[in-house]
Amino acid sequence: MSFIVLLGQSTYNQILLIGRITLFFISILKSFPRKIIETYQIVLQMFFIGAKTISIIVLSAIFIGSVLSIQGHYILNMFGADDQLGQLVALSVLRELGPVMTALLFIGRAGGSVTSEIGIMRLTDQINALKSMQVSIQRYIMFPRLVAIIVSLPLLTMLFNAFAIIGAYGISTVSLKLDPGMFLISINTYVSLWDDVAAGLFKTLFFGIIIATIALYYGINATKSSTGVAHASTKTVVYSSISILLCDYILTSMLMRLW
Question: Which residues form the domain of 48?
């Protein structure tokens, strides 16, 4: 009986949390910037959040594409279908691995950083200082970071997709000694711009909203202590990762009907 009570209480608390985060996201959307300095903040955050994440995205993409090429060749070779390796790699990366891996890497690099930054601003009373000067926190701090994450994630996903396929192409032609022409022809024949490329990028819009909202929510609600900021960053990484995987399952189930 106690287990049922605990399960019900836990479910109730999670529903309340989702409701609070949703209302928090709506409050940020209402604070559309009206000054040039706030637009500048968006560009600045895109640099810190997006541009500084490029290196880890590119390196991870090359290695993941290379491993996928080796594993794919091992499986396809059993059925004498080596010429379909390009199709296997491209569809796997464009539909699933690209959006999901980029989002997970982005959470570790930028999501926790955003939460820590805002948590430290709260800890050092910078938030209260801005409020005392009648500066809108949602407009000056929250909205630029929200837009920066939503815009940066699809761009980083495109980079991941490109370099993952390049890495797979390099391994398949240099190490596996496959015909480079067949690799490219299989991609050109079976990969669709709308069904595969656009569908994968479509997922990243939802991923970006989830990551940004959770990171900002736990940052602004972090306990005013070093331990509180650390716990908030941990919650951001954990809850964002779980939410991304759940969202990917839902979106993939919907998009599979179109594929």
Answer: 31-255
